[in-house]
Write a structure and sequence with these properties.
The protein is an alpha/beta fold. The chain is built from six helices and seven strands, in the order ββαβαβαββααβα.
Protein backbone atom coordinates (compact mmCIF):
# COMPACT_ATOMS: atom_id res chain seq x y z
CA UNK A 1 0.00 0.00 0.00
CA UNK A 2 1.03 3.59 -0.59
CA UNK A 3 1.84 5.26 2.72
CA UNK A 4 1.70 8.83 1.44
CA UNK A 5 -0.47 10.43 -1.22
CA UNK A 6 1.00 13.04 -3.53
CA UNK A 7 -0.63 15.98 -5.28
CA UNK A 8 0.13 18.85 -7.67
CA UNK A 9 0.32 22.39 -6.33
CA UNK A 10 0.29 25.73 -8.16
CA UNK A 11 4.06 25.85 -8.63
CA UNK A 12 4.00 22.41 -10.31
CA UNK A 13 5.79 20.61 -7.47
CA UNK A 14 4.51 17.42 -5.95
CA UNK A 15 3.71 17.71 -2.28
CA UNK A 16 2.64 15.21 0.34
CA UNK A 17 -1.02 15.46 1.42
CA UNK A 18 -2.63 14.91 4.76
CA UNK A 19 -5.83 12.87 5.02
CA UNK A 20 -8.13 15.92 4.86
CA UNK A 21 -10.95 16.57 2.40
CA UNK A 22 -11.41 17.74 -1.13
CA UNK A 23 -9.55 21.08 -1.03
CA UNK A 24 -6.17 19.59 -1.97
CA UNK A 25 -7.81 17.58 -4.74
CA UNK A 26 -9.53 20.71 -6.06
CA UNK A 27 -6.28 22.67 -6.15
CA UNK A 28 -4.46 19.77 -7.80
CA UNK A 29 -7.14 19.37 -10.46
CA UNK A 30 -7.23 23.11 -11.19
CA UNK A 31 -3.47 23.17 -11.76
CA UNK A 32 -3.51 20.00 -13.84
CA UNK A 33 -6.44 21.23 -15.99
CA UNK A 34 -5.14 24.80 -16.36
CA UNK A 35 -4.17 24.34 -20.03
CA UNK A 36 -6.80 21.72 -20.94
CA UNK A 37 -8.74 22.04 -24.18
CA UNK A 38 -10.08 18.52 -24.76
CA UNK A 39 -10.50 16.16 -21.81
CA UNK A 40 -11.35 12.47 -21.65
CA UNK A 41 -12.61 11.22 -18.29
CA UNK A 42 -12.18 7.47 -17.89
CA UNK A 43 -14.33 5.86 -15.19
CA UNK A 44 -12.81 2.57 -14.01
CA UNK A 45 -14.10 -0.06 -11.59
CA UNK A 46 -16.11 -3.21 -11.07
CA UNK A 47 -19.87 -2.96 -10.48
CA UNK A 48 -19.61 -6.14 -8.39
CA UNK A 49 -17.03 -4.83 -5.90
CA UNK A 50 -18.94 -2.12 -3.98
CA UNK A 51 -16.80 1.06 -3.78
CA UNK A 52 -14.49 -0.09 -6.56
CA UNK A 53 -17.21 1.23 -8.93
CA UNK A 54 -16.64 4.85 -7.85
CA UNK A 55 -14.90 5.94 -11.08
CA UNK A 56 -17.75 4.76 -13.28
CA UNK A 57 -20.31 6.35 -10.97
CA UNK A 58 -18.59 9.76 -11.23
CA UNK A 59 -18.68 9.49 -15.04
CA UNK A 60 -22.37 8.57 -14.94
CA UNK A 61 -23.16 11.59 -12.78
CA UNK A 62 -21.31 13.88 -15.20
CA UNK A 63 -23.42 12.79 -18.20
CA UNK A 64 -25.32 15.72 -19.70
CA UNK A 65 -23.49 18.21 -17.45
CA UNK A 66 -20.20 18.72 -19.30
CA UNK A 67 -19.43 20.47 -22.59
CA UNK A 68 -18.70 18.68 -25.87
CA UNK A 69 -14.94 19.07 -25.42
CA UNK A 70 -15.16 16.58 -22.53
CA UNK A 71 -15.59 12.92 -23.44
CA UNK A 72 -16.94 10.55 -20.77
CA UNK A 73 -16.13 6.83 -20.90
CA UNK A 74 -17.48 4.12 -18.59
CA UNK A 75 -14.64 1.62 -18.93
CA UNK A 76 -15.41 -0.59 -15.92
CA UNK A 77 -12.57 -3.13 -15.57
CA UNK A 78 -11.24 -2.95 -19.14
CA UNK A 79 -10.00 0.57 -19.88
CA UNK A 80 -7.64 -0.89 -22.48
CA UNK A 81 -10.71 -1.64 -24.63
CA UNK A 82 -11.23 2.12 -24.98
CA UNK A 83 -7.79 3.08 -26.32
CA UNK A 84 -9.10 3.82 -29.82
CA UNK A 85 -12.02 6.08 -28.78
CA UNK A 86 -9.68 7.96 -26.45
CA UNK A 87 -7.08 8.48 -29.19
CA UNK A 88 -9.74 9.43 -31.76
CA UNK A 89 -10.99 12.23 -29.48
CA UNK A 90 -7.49 13.81 -29.60
CA UNK A 91 -7.43 14.82 -25.93
CA UNK A 92 -5.03 17.25 -24.33
CA UNK A 93 -5.77 15.60 -20.96
CA UNK A 94 -6.95 12.15 -19.84
CA UNK A 95 -8.26 11.83 -16.29
CA UNK A 96 -8.63 8.26 -15.01
CA UNK A 97 -10.94 7.97 -12.00
CA UNK A 98 -10.61 4.81 -9.93
CA UNK A 99 -10.67 3.42 -6.41
CA UNK A 100 -7.18 2.95 -4.96
CA UNK A 101 -5.71 1.96 -1.62
CA UNK A 102 -4.18 5.20 -0.34
CA UNK A 103 -4.16 4.49 3.41
CA UNK A 104 -6.50 7.45 3.90
CA UNK A 105 -10.03 7.73 5.25
CA UNK A 106 -12.75 6.30 2.99
CA UNK A 107 -13.70 8.81 0.31
CA UNK A 108 -10.43 10.74 0.39
CA UNK A 109 -9.16 11.52 -3.09
CA UNK A 110 -5.80 12.44 -4.58
CA UNK A 111 -4.54 13.33 -8.04
CA UNK A 112 -1.62 11.08 -8.95
CA UNK A 113 0.97 11.70 -11.68
CA UNK A 114 1.47 8.97 -14.32
CA UNK A 115 4.91 8.03 -13.00
CA UNK A 116 3.38 7.51 -9.54
CA UNK A 117 0.47 5.36 -10.76
CA UNK A 118 2.43 2.11 -10.56
CA UNK A 119 2.80 2.71 -6.82
CA UNK A 120 -0.95 3.02 -6.24
CA UNK A 121 -2.60 -0.36 -5.60
CA UNK A 122 -5.73 -0.95 -7.68
CA UNK A 123 -6.99 -4.46 -8.12
CA UNK A 124 -9.74 -5.06 -10.65
CA UNK A 125 -8.01 -4.36 -13.97
CA UNK A 126 -6.54 -6.82 -16.39
CA UNK A 127 -3.95 -4.32 -17.68
CA UNK A 128 -2.18 -2.23 -15.00
CA UNK A 129 -3.16 1.44 -15.13
CA UNK A 130 0.52 2.37 -15.37
CA UNK A 131 0.79 0.58 -18.75
CA UNK A 132 -2.53 2.04 -19.90
CA UNK A 133 -1.29 5.54 -18.98
CA UNK A 134 2.08 5.02 -20.63
CA UNK A 135 0.45 3.88 -23.87
CA UNK A 136 -1.93 6.87 -23.88
CA UNK A 137 0.92 9.29 -23.31
CA UNK A 138 2.84 7.83 -26.25
CA UNK A 139 -0.11 7.67 -28.65
CA UNK A 140 -1.95 10.90 -27.79
CA UNK A 141 0.67 13.17 -26.24
CA UNK A 142 -2.00 14.02 -23.65
CA UNK A 143 -1.33 14.76 -20.00
CA UNK A 144 -2.47 11.76 -17.96
CA UNK A 145 -3.44 11.63 -14.29
CA UNK A 146 -5.24 9.28 -11.95
CA UNK A 147 -7.87 10.66 -9.61
CA UNK A 148 -7.54 7.98 -6.92
CA UNK A 149 -10.30 7.54 -4.34
CA UNK A 150 -9.91 5.57 -1.12
CA UNK A 151 -12.71 2.95 -0.97
CA UNK A 152 -14.36 1.80 2.23
CA UNK A 153 -15.45 -1.63 0.97
CA UNK A 154 -14.36 -3.59 -2.09
CA UNK A 155 -15.90 -6.92 -1.14
CA UNK A 156 -18.29 -8.56 -3.56
CA UNK A 157 -21.60 -6.75 -3.60
CA UNK A 158 -23.35 -3.91 -5.35
CA UNK A 159 -23.81 -0.28 -4.43
CA UNK A 160 -21.47 2.34 -3.03
CA UNK A 161 -21.10 2.94 0.70
CA UNK A 162 -22.44 6.23 2.10
CA UNK A 163 -18.94 7.74 2.41
CA UNK A 164 -18.20 7.05 -1.24
CA UNK A 165 -21.62 8.32 -2.38
CA UNK A 166 -20.76 11.63 -0.72
CA UNK A 167 -17.37 11.69 -2.45
CA UNK A 168 -19.06 11.04 -5.80
CA UNK A 169 -21.40 14.02 -5.23
CA UNK A 170 -18.51 16.28 -4.20
CA UNK A 171 -16.21 15.27 -7.06
CA UNK A 172 -18.98 15.51 -9.64
CA UNK A 173 -19.79 19.06 -8.55
CA UNK A 174 -16.12 19.98 -8.49
CA UNK A 175 -15.45 18.62 -11.99
CA UNK A 176 -18.50 20.39 -13.43
CA UNK A 177 -17.15 23.63 -11.97
CA UNK A 178 -13.52 23.33 -13.11
CA UNK A 179 -13.55 21.40 -16.41
CA UNK A 180 -12.62 23.57 -19.40
CA UNK A 181 -15.45 25.39 -21.08
CA UNK A 182 -16.35 24.35 -24.57
CA UNK A 183 -14.17 25.32 -27.50
CA UNK A 184 -14.84 24.56 -31.15
CA UNK A 185 -14.18 20.90 -31.90
Amino acid sequence: MVQKALTYFRDGRMKENDASGIKETEESLRVWLSDARRVVIVGVGSPLRRDDFVGVEVVRRLRGKVPRNVSLLECETVPESFLEPISDFKPTHVLIIDAALLNLKPGASRLVKPEEISGVPVSTHILPLSLFSEYLTETTGAKIALLAIQPKETDFGEGLTEEIKETVRNLTGLLIKILPKEEPL
